[in-house]
Amino acid sequence: MSRLVVVSNRVADPRKTAAGGLAVALGEALAETGGLWFGTSGTVVDSGHGEGKLHTHRAGNVTLATVDLTQEDHDSYYRGYANGVLWPVFHYRLDLADFDAGHIEGYRRVNRMFAHRLRPLLQPDDVIWVHDYHLIPLAAELRAMGCQQRIGFFLHIPVPPPLILAAIPAHDWLMRALFAYDLVGVQSQADLTHLSRYLLSEAGAEAVGENTFGAFNRQLRTGAFPIGIDVDEFTALADGEEARAMIATLREQYAKRQLLAGVDRLDYSKGLPQRVRAFRTLLERYPENRHSATLIQVAAPSREDVHAYGDIRRELEGLCGAVNGDFGDIDWMPVRYIHRTVARKRVPGLYRSARVGLVTPLRDGMNLVAKEFVAVQDPADPGVLVLSRFAGAAEQLRDALLVNPYDTQATADAIQRALHMPLQERQMRHARLLEEIRRHDVHWWRRGFLAALTETSA
Ligand code: ADQ
To answer: Is 221 in the same domain as 264?
Structure first.
């Protein structure tokens, strides 16, 4: 059996619970064959002080290999290009992209440096699995150094329509690099359709079979592999001490209220201002919810050195303050906004205490919060998931209340329906959602991807 090599921007020690479901699932796959996980260390060093220095350590039979970045590389590769260009464009936000030419140079340079550091660690029959938009050109760099192993790529974020992708200066270079992979996986059927149309119309590729394309003397297989969660790992967290303490506290403090919960990174793709506006509209149109409905919105600080992230923070704080000022009372605060990462062990407690889970991104590759919310509900008295139709998860979670987050009134109406949904309907919807997330969990995802990658001819 071939050894698995995982490459991602950040590396997590799979044995630590804080690492999360994805790290646990990849860690499991790595441990099956003994493997290597390669990425950045998270340490930023001054130029000339050991940039690209490789650190390795063992975690069981898995080797974690990480490299340091210089401040300049971090600014151009990570902040400038990956998060300042690719993240907004792939989330349909051309208006937020900063196409400064210097960033793409850094992105190329760092991907080349990764390839140089990784190459000596590789064995001839390794299977290499590269993750996400930070590393699109990595396989092309490895191939240029003579690597012939099977290499697969999974994109965690959405694929926009071809003309949006084509607005990226040098998009042809970027997307041509995909042909160095044997398999490219995306989250949803919608993403797969966009990718196929791009390859045919912009990259001059030929369809040579189902979801298989030929160009630049190579064949590329593509597929939709919707990522899931580790349902058992997450429900075990819900039964843990921290989650139970959280449930007890919330139950005591909000005994007479109905809780709505939102848990996100503070990112413009997550639709947070739109969500607070919908909640405001709920209180305006359906006054029976006043003094009762309470939104707890946790927004983890994220990429604060990228300009657009400061703007979204200020907007959100203003909107939450206005709802509390206009509707709150001495004994009731409609919105509790927390700008913090909540410990992973406590998150299930918040989900489980909520009557409604609000997952309303403007665009999202998948959105694991939606699946986590479903996983930890009490089947006898479950909360209701209100889910954006623009999250990849909406293709699978058809029994959620699907909303268009740009439509404030319709979203408020859906929240009203969720808050007042009869028990039987809640149970029925929840049972179907739970079955879906169990059937298509994170283990199913990684097995499916790796099986498809192994089938490709190296
Ligand atoms: P993200 O954009 O980070 O991931 P998501 O899928 O929702 O989004 O995962 C977030 C994870 O972080 C969840 O496990 C959640 O519990 C946790 N989290 C979020 N906010 C938190 C907070 N304030 N405190 C504590 N924990 C918090 C990217 C893509 C997604 C895709 C995933 C996986 O953008 O579309 O689903 O990768 O492929």
So the answer is: no
